[in-house]
Amino acid sequence: MDKLRAIQYFNQAVASGSLTGAARFFDVSTASVAELVSALEQSVGAPLLHRTRQGISLTADGEKYYEISRSVVDDLHEVEQRIGSRASELRGTLTVGIRDSIGQCCVMPNLNRFLARHPRVDLVLKPIISIDDLDDKALDLGVVIGWAPERDIVVHPLIQTRLMVVASPRYWHTHGKPETPEDLKGHDCLVIRSTGGTQLDRWTFQRQGKRCTVDVRSRLFSDERNWLYEAARGCCGVARLADITLLQDLRAGSLVPVLVEWEALEAPMVFAAFQPRARQSRLMRAFLDFLVEVFAELDIERRPLAPGHARPVAKPEWFGRVRGRHSARNTVRKR
User: Fold this and answer.
1) Domains, the chain, ranges and CATH?
2) pTM for this prediction
3) Each residue of 133-165: pLDDT tens digit?
């Protein structure tokens, strides 16, 4: 068994949420990934993954192993980077598309780091909405938030978000804070519309195995997350937004989270994507390494501000199927 490759397959399967996702990332068959991960489990002497029709999840031993194995691979990568720094400098132009909220909150504040490391690299940055823009805007790399499409591209997960229910201190002072998800029915909620046209006014929560679905009341919908963010700051109502885009406001207290003991389900993932032919591009790999580093730091930073375990999730049932208000769809899954 190639143990290092087995560990890499295992780590990527966890990050992707499936063995298929790891196979797609490494451009190998799912059977190859499954075989090496199973061999790794035999070598360890304990199952590391639960396998179900819905995907995979870590066992208790798997959680311990993943924490250590990810650190080992990161350390090895750092050594390789230091040795490789003696090679010729990178140069050229890289065209990157980034979803606006991710660029504004996560990438741009740290971009000076990449520019300082690679003084002969020029960046062309373009705003994008979905990974469909990868071809339309002639991008070398795209960074979006959502769920990976079913198409022939390489997907690299960067961070699993956690949805947080927030409003301004003034709004909570005026209207009171909800103590349960059901209490949201008495509040004005700010609802984002997905790239597929679904108005996400059905919010689902889970706590200790109990699931609660609420069709929230809303008069304000938008395709643009940043507009709803500013509306929440301006005391217009309650928003449900990705935690990594809120760290500065959570720290400053300009937005206050509620229902933090509940897990808001259907949280999207931030991921990078590129064409398989770009896999050997040193420029693209350098920027991808930068992104991995930034989001790993954000993951550490958010833990005391946005407590809770952000678990990889499958595509929600409305994804690509529902247009208009999600609450108008009659089928609500019972658990």
Assistant:
1) 3-84 (1.10.10.10), 92-158+268-302 (3.40.190.10), 163-266+307-328 (3.40.190.290)
2) 0.68
3) 777 678 899 999 888 776 678 889 999 999 999
